Amino acid sequence: MNYKVPRGTQDILPGQSEKWQKVEEIIRQLCQVYRYQEIRTPIFEQTELFQRSVGDTTDIVQKEMYTFKDRGDRSLTLRPEGTAAVVRSYVEHKMFGQPDQPVKLSYIGPMFRYERQQAGRYRQFVQFGVEAIGSKDPAIDAEVIALAMDVYETAGLKNLKLVINSLGDADVRAAHRDALIKHFEPHIGDFCSDCQNRLEKNPLRILDCKVDRENPLMATAPALTDYLNEESAAYFEAVKKYLDVLGITYVVDPNLVRGLDYYNHTTFEIMSTATDLGAITTLCGGGRYNGLVEQIGGPESPGIGFAMSIERLLLALEAEGRSLDTDNALDMYIVAMDEQAKLKAVELASSFRAKGISTELDYASRKVKAQMKSADRLDAKWVIVLGESELEEQAANVKNMELGSQEKVPFHDLVNYLTKHKVQ
Ligand code: ATP
Ligand code: MG
After folding, report:
1. Which of 50, 127, 161, 311 to mutate to test the pocket of ligand 1 (most atoms within 8 A of CB)?
2. Kind of pairing, strands 37-38 and 103-112?
3. Which ligand ends up closest to the CA of 259?
4. Which residue in 1, 83, 110, 287 is a FRET match for 329, CA 20 to 30 A apart?
5. Is-above-0.70 flag for pTM?
6. Contact between residue 178 and residue 266 where contact means Cβ atoms under 8 Å apart
7. pLDDT tens for the 424 residues of the chain, in order
8. Contacts of 149 (CB under 8 A, 6+ apart)
């Protein structure tokens, strides 16, 4: 056989999957506490949804989408991100009509982008994201940022940096756009062909270019923050005040422009400052998208959200040398010495499991010694050995592997005994 996992994807095997479960548990718990209810949308959507919302000139739409025609000749795309679909659903199900706005939603699931594979960059990856749609209160911007930070901190990360910026409103963007064109136009020949295309279509994208990152004109480009009008500046100040109230430290980076077209006002990224992480340090990206709901066909409903991949969170943990507190402990291993004992072992295992006591036994007819070795390898808390004499006495010695002690317990009392001692 010569099959391999497709390039840019990975199998998450036991040993690793417990970590995923733990992160998902942290996420679910925090979403419950912050009140972001889960929404599940399809893995694919009409291609046009992404073209129009993410933006025609973005890397995602131009280079990274998995687009295909179905048998009915419709163009569909595996979702490259979550916001477009959530907003589509918000409009389709008229959530704007719900009495409590903003509607606060969260999602977790696979996203697909045709990218060059490297550490922290996959073609299928899992994003956790939230969207708060229907409010332009700066306090909700701070809440969304706080939730993202809380996920990382609860997972155990310490080396984090929050970077924020404001892209302002449409007027600000227009004035800044003119300034950018003036700045880059005389030297655009020195830039990559993508940037040359971006100059007229969307010059802001040039600042986000990965090819021309080192060009000196990048550092001297007009900063959006210098173009903020009074309203946008006041909004940004209010967001910062709320972050201060929450005790969240941040750095303002006037060059932070995110790779999707729909952002305005608040944008932010959370980076890992762990030295062992390698080239990719951004763990989470998000921002405000006033106007996106209207663009997708709904009434004015300003929104904000973020997305983070679980892959990068786990890489950051690894880079910091931290491990998650996963729970894969085995409570009980039952060793059976013969066929009669095996019958009893199966019966007891069932009664243990019914009470939430995780139980394992041998399914390979191995000798007692080999079974004991398994119990050791699996790090069982307790072991009982069943043989002729145990069946006769209807009792077994419960060995506590941690303490090295043992106690004889009648079969009919085992469940009680184990339940009582498990919680201690
Ligand atoms: P980058 O600049 O690294 O390409 P991006 O701007 O494309 O990131 P977003 O679209 O903002 O990223 O996605 C939000 C988050 O999703 C990122 O911060 C990262 O955690 C994660 N992410 C994005 N692309 C990938 C990928 N190919 N593999 C794993 N995680 C990813
Ligand atoms: Mg990208």
Report:
1. 127
2. parallel
3. 1
4. 110
5. yes
6. no
7. 799 999 999 999 999 999 999 999 999 999 999 999 999 999 999 999 999 999 888 889 999 999 999 999 999 999 999 999 999 999 999 999 999 999 999 999 999 999 998 889 999 999 999 999 999 999 999 999 999 999 999 999 999 999 999 999 988 988 999 999 999 999 999 999 999 999 988 898 898 888 998 999 998 999 888 899 999 999 999 999 999 999 999 999 988 887 677 889 999 999 999 988 888 899 999 999 999 999 999 999 999 999 999 999 999 999 999 999 887 889 999 999 999 999 999 999 999 999 999 999 999 999 999 999 999 999 999 999 999 999 999 999 999 999 999 999 999 999 999 999 986 5
8. 160, 162, 248, 270
Of 182, 224, 216, 215, give the one whose Cα is nearest residue 200. Answer: 182
CB atoms within 10 A of CB 166: 27
Distance 16 CA to ligand 1 centre (A): 21
Which residue is closest in CA terms to ligand 1's atom 15? 308
Residues 245 and 266: their CA atoms lie apart, in Å, by: 17
